[in-house]
Amino acid sequence: MAPLKLAVVGGGPSSFYVASRLLSLLPQTSVRGENLRVHMYDRLWAPHGLVRYGVAPDHPEVKNCTHKFDQAAMDPRFRFFGNIHVGARPSTIIPHARSISLSSLAPHYTHLLFATGCTVPTFHPALPASDLVVPALSFVHWYTQHPSRPRIPSLEKIEHVTLIGQGNVSLDVARILLTSPSVLEKYDVPETVLEILRRSAVKHVSIVGRRGPLEAAFTVKELREMMNLSEASMVPLDPSLLEPPPDTKLNRQQTRTLQLLRKGSVNEHGKTPKTWSLDFFRSPTGLAPPSPSSPAANLTLAHTSLDSSNHAIPTGQTSTLATNLVVTSLGHRSDPTQEFYDPALAHLRTLSGRVVSAEGHVVRNVYASGWAAMGAKGVLASTMMDAYAVADTILSDQFPDAAEGEGVQTTHAPARGAEGVLEDAVEGLGLGKDVDLENVPEEVERGVMEGEVTQYGDWKRVDEEEVRRGEVLGKERERMGWEEAREFLRKA
Ligand code: NAP
Question: In this model, does residue 411 exceed pLDDT 90?
Answer without folding.
Answer: no
